[in-house]
Design brief:
single chain, 376 residues, alpha/beta, 12 helices, 35% helix
Length: 376
């Protein structure tokens, strides 16, 4: 499951595009805007490296992108949610959109599936997919917050490695939301002002076994009961003082799969299809079609034998035709049907491969062709 916003933004903004980048005025100074070509190239390199490292192919991917008004539901909870995030000039935002769309197109044409939904953030869509999809799942994202979804069947691919433990420290990943609600998270939400990372570490040392109880107080909006514990743990004073912000921050920090795929706003799925790949880095996963006749039959069968064990599917496209006497017999009867019993094998298409990218077409009864036999 690929968090496309995270992956493409990281790849677009990393380093300097000295070849196609343009300089613009932003925030009172001149800044270099990397081109969408630069973002595309880096993103493809990043995704290809991840697939190869994990032993996967593009058809194993679900690409998650964000559509319009993705922040609106959290802004209803806290009006300042991501309200001041203007880290990049408009030209960079335009380059990001072009890079993201070109990456999605490239991998959709290699069999990857694309999914989006207006009005929700990509994190919530990923949480929904993790909740309802069977089997083992890997989330490819640079966002450490995705670690809260780690479980025996879910891992996080981040920083070029597979992560199965909490990157924020030695505590259960289910409490990442509580940590964010107390400490805050940049311009997303405030948390308890003055309750910083050090206070969180002290909380783990002194009350680590009571995090479930503390989280229930946040959920039930009963943080005022902590007043009795301030003498023993002074940072609780900040939590009580800024309880309203903690409640807002917790609601914003939570993943909300219940917002996804509703009756009013269902998920928008776009299926992938394996086509020939123009990008040289992707050609090994792109469609390759070969005609098989008696001249290259042995070579084709040998190649097929090397690929079948890694093929998740093998599809057959069986083509038949009928002899002239069969067509004449049906015509005399005034019937517009096909004589199934009189049909003869004309050819066979077979598609296979680890990305279902190979198709062999065996010619059996084609005119002016050194055909393969029916027995073969």
């Amino acid at each position: 499951i690929v968090d496309m916003s995270s992956v493409v933004k990281r790849c677009l903004y990393a380093g300097k595009d000295t070849e196609n980048g343009v300089k613009v005025q932003f925030g009172g100074k001149e800044v270099l805007v990397n081109s969408h070509h630069y973002g595309y190239d880096n993103s493809v390199n990043s995704i290809v490296a991840a697939l190869e490292d994990l032993g996967l192919v593009p058809s194993d991917m679900i690409m998650v992108t964000e559509a319009g008004a993705s922040k609106i539901l959290r802004q209803r909870i806290y009006s300042g949610y991501k309200a001041k995030r203007e880290e990049h000039p408009p030209e960079s935002n335009e380059a990001f959109g072009l890079a993201r769309d070109s990456v999605v197109k490239a991998f959709r044409e290699l069999g990857a599936v694309h999914v989006t939904q207006p009005g929700v953030e990509g994190d919530d869509v990923i949480a929904y997919l993790v909740q309802y999809l069977d089997g083992d799942k890997i989330i490819f994202s640079g966002d450490g917050d995705m670690a809260r979804l780690i479980s025996p069947t879910v891992s996080l691919y981040r920083g070029n490695k597979l992560i199965t433990d909490n990157p924020y420290g030695p505590f259960d990943v289910k409490h990442i939301t509580l940590m964010k609600a107390l400490v805050g998270d940049g311009d997303e939400f405030k948390g308890a002002k003055g309750f910083g990372p050090k206070a969180w570490l002290d909380l783990l040392v002194n009350y680590g076994e009571h995090l479930d109880t503390l989280e229930s107080l946040v959920v039930e909006k009963r943080l005022d009961v902590l007043k009795d514990d301030i003498a023993d743990f002074p940072p609780f004073a900040k939590v009580v003082e800024h309880a309203t912000h903690v409640y807002e921050s917790y609601a914003c920090a939570q993943l909300h799969p219940e917002w996804v795929n509703t009756l009013r706003t269902p998920l928008q799925w776009t299926a992938g299809i394996v086509l020939p790949a123009e990008d040289y880095r992707l050609r090994k996963w792109g469609q390759q079609v070969r005609l098989v006749t008696a001249d290259n039959y042995d070579e084709a069968v040998k190649f097929l034998g090397t690929k079948l064990s890694s093929s998740p599917y093998v599809s057959l496209d069986i083509e038949t035709s009928t002899p002239d006497e069969s067509d004449e017999w049906l015509e005399r009867r005034g019937v517009d049907k096909v004589d199934v019993l009189g049909s003869e094998l004309t050819g066979l298409g077979m598609t296979f491969g680890n990305n279902c990218q190979y198709t062999l077409y065996f010619s059996v009864d084609h005119r002016d062709t050194n055909n393969v036999t029916v027995d073969q």
